[in-house]
Structures are given as structure tokens and as C-alpha cells.
């Protein structure tokens, strides 16, 4: 399928994990992709590798919580590619801790990365999308938005993402822009590995517990999320907006 021929896609946090799988999914379907990440070397390596395969990709080092950097980065992307059709607000971090031990820094970095980062990037992208009278924004929420021990900060951020998604969908719909979110459950990436490292619980035990407790008896892969992001960014989903799709291998409520 080449659903994204001539489309320009921006993926934040695109150097690894779900972001990397999303970048690869979009280029496979014909898109030109701008990769934004903190991790400049990893993003550059990914862009170089894809360019060698004949794909059009560029990497941009940018902290999505830094307003000046975000404004400059989107200007450069628009200058280079001439338009912005899709934004995937994927950059994320975790700083898990029980509430009574959580410090302000752990609260702020998580809230800032997800909420301020998605706000700043969406505000820049919509400038171009509104002029084009078309665009798709896909947000990354999480199963944790429904509550998870040790994730007061992350749950608040990911529940906030759902409110942002619905509100941006209302404001931007009249300009031909769809805004939706995916809410993954446990997906195997550096993020989930680092949670295991920090909590001291064995990664294999964490995965075993996930498999035991969910309906589809396996953990998630980044590609499981990338395919739903691509669907929501495609014309096939043009009458869907303000929705949250759980990609969690389980029933959620
Ligand atoms: P990864 O940690 O594997 O990748 C996230 C990338 O975003 C990293 O390269 C990270 O850099 C980068 N990043 C973090 N902060 C910033 C910033 N301020 N500016 C630019 N780049 C930044 O995460 P995942 O692939 O696992 O997660 C991707 C998204 O999916 C996140 O929003 C996450 O919350 C969400 N999600 C993930 C789940 C999972 O189980 N993996 C489940 C539910 C939701 P660095 O390494 O330096 O931090």
C-alpha cells in the first residue's frame, strides 16, 4: 500500500521504539518523513539508513518542550519539505514513583514532555495544516491514563492527552484536520526496559505478568502501534476524529 505518497509526516521521538516503527511504516507507504528527537545520533543514523534505501527522510535535533527550538524546527521542516500533512506526537518519558516518593522534577519532566511537547508541536503544525485545509494529528496516550500504580505523573499526562485530542479535534475539524489518539498498553521498547531497570523488577517477570493479564496472550510490539497510527493518519479514517484507540491486547474501560 502507498497511502502516503507525496505526504510529509513529522514524527517526534522518532529515533527509537514506537516512533522508529512509525517512521518506518510511513516511509514504507511512500511518505517523506521528518524525524524529531533528543537523540540526534540515533535519529541521524535512522535517516541515513532510510535514505540509502531511497527514502526521503531528514532528522532534526529538538527538545519538544523548548518553545524556541520547536518553532525553529517546524520552520526548517516546512522550508525543506514544503508542507506538513501528518504530525505524530510521540516523544515521551517516564519517571515512575509512588506518590509519596515522587519529587517535583519527576512530575514536571513527565507532564512537560507529553503535554507541553504535544501542545507546542501541534500549535506549530496546525499553522501549516490550516493553510493547506488538511492534516492529521495523532497523539500518544496510554493504557496508564486509566490509572496505574507508580505512575501518577504519567497517568495525568496521558489522560491530559485524551482531553487535548478531543478539544483539538473540535477546533481543527472545520479546517479539514483530524485529531485522534492511540493508547498503547505494554509495548516492548527502551522505555519499558528502563522502567524495569529503575524499579529493579526483572523485565521477564514484568512481561510474564502482562501476558497473564491480557486477552491477547503476548506483549505488544512497536509495529502494533505504528499500524494503527498510520490508519488514523490515512484517508481511510477521514470521518474519525477526537477518538482514542486502545492498542493494548486487552479490554479496557
Ligand atoms: P522510547 O523511550 O523508546 O522513545 C521515545 C523517544 O522520545 C526517545 O528517543 C526519547 O529520547 C525521545 N524524547 C523524550 N523526550 C523528548 C523531548 N523532550 N524532545 C524530543 N525527544 C524526546 O519510548 P516508546 O517508544 O516506548 O514510547 C513512545 C510513546 O508511546 C511515548 O509517548 C510513550 O509515553 C507512549 N507509550 C509507550 C508505551 C510502551 O509500553 N512502550 C505504552 C503506552 C504509551 P530519550 O531516550 O533521550 O529520552
Describe this structure in words.
GO terms for molecular function: oxidoreductase activity. Its EC number is 1.1.1.-. It is an enzyme of class 1 (oxidoreductase). Belongs to the short-chain dehydrogenases/reductases (SDR) family. This is SDR family NAD(P)-dependent oxidoreductase. By secondary structure, the chain is of the alpha/beta class. It contains eight helices and seven strands, in the order βαβαβαβαβαβαααβ. It has helices at residues 17-28, 40-52, 67-81, 104-132, 152-172, 190-199, 203-213, 222-233; strands at 8-12, 32-37, 57-61, 86-89, 135-140, 177-184, 244-247. The protein has a seven-stranded parallel sheet, sandwiched between helices. α2 (40-52) links the parallel β2 (32-37) and β3. α4 (104-132) packs parallel to α5 (152-172). The protein is globular, with a radius of gyration of 17 Å.
Bound molecules: NADPH dihydro-nicotinamide-adenine-dinucleotide phosphate
Amino-to-carboxy terminus distance: 33 Å
Overall helicity: 40-55%
Tell me what portion of residues adopts beta-strand conformation.
Answer: 15-25%
| Annotation, overall tally of beta strands | 7
Summed over residues and divided by their number, the pLDDT gives a mean of 97
What is the approximate shape?
globular
Q: Class by helix and strand content?
A: alpha/beta
Oligomer: single chain
- How many alpha or pi helices? 8
Uncertain regions spanning at least 5 consecutive residues: none
Q: What's the main sheet like? A: 7 strands, parallel
Q: Could you state the order of secondary-structure elements as H and E?
A: EHEHEHEHEHEHHHE
Amino acid at each position: 500500500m502507498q497511502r502516503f505518497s507525496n505526504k510529509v509526516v513529522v514524527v517526534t521521538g522518532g529515533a527509537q521504539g514506537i516512533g522508529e516503527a512509525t517512521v518506518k511504516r510511513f516511509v514504507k507507504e511512500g511518505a517523506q518523513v521528518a524525524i524529531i528527537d533528543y537523540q540526534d545520533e540515533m535519529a541521524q543514523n535512522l535517516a541515513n539508513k532510510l535514505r540509502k534505501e531511497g527514502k526521503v527522510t531528514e532528522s532534526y535535533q529538538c527538545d519538544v518542550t523548548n518553545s524556541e527550538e520547536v518553532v525553529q524546527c517546524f520552520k526548517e521542516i516546512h522550508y525543506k519539505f514544503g508542507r506538513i500533512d501528518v504530525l505524530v506526537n510521540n516523544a515521551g518519558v517516564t519517571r515512575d514513583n509512588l506518590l509519596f516518593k515522587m519529587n517535583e522534577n519527576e512530575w514536571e519532566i513527565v507532564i512537560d514532555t507529553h503535554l507541553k511537547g504535544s501542545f507546542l508541536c501541534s500549535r506549530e503544525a496546525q499553522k501549516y495544516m490550516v493553510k493547506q485545509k488538511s492534516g492529521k494529528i495523532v497523539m500518544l496516550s496510554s493504557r496508564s491514563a486509566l490509572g496505574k500504580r507508580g505512575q501518577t505523573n504519567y497517568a495525568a499526562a496521558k489522560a491530559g492527552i485524551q482531553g487535548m485530542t478531543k478539544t483539538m479535534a473540535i477546533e481543527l475539524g472545520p479546517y479539514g484536520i483530524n485529531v485522534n489518539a492511540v493508547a498503547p498498553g505494554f509495548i516492548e521498547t527502551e522505555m519499558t526496559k528502563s522502567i524495569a531497570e529503575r524499579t529493579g523488577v526483572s523485565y521477564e517477570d514484568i512481561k510474564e505478568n502482562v501476558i497473564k493479564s491480557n486477552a491477547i496472550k503476548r506483549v505488544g510490539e512497536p509495529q502494533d502501534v505504528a499500524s494503527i497510527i498510520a490508519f488514523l493518519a490515512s484517508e481511510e479514517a477521514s470521518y474519525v476524529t477526537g477518538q482514542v484507540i486502545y492498542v493494548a491486547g486487552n479490554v479496557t474501560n
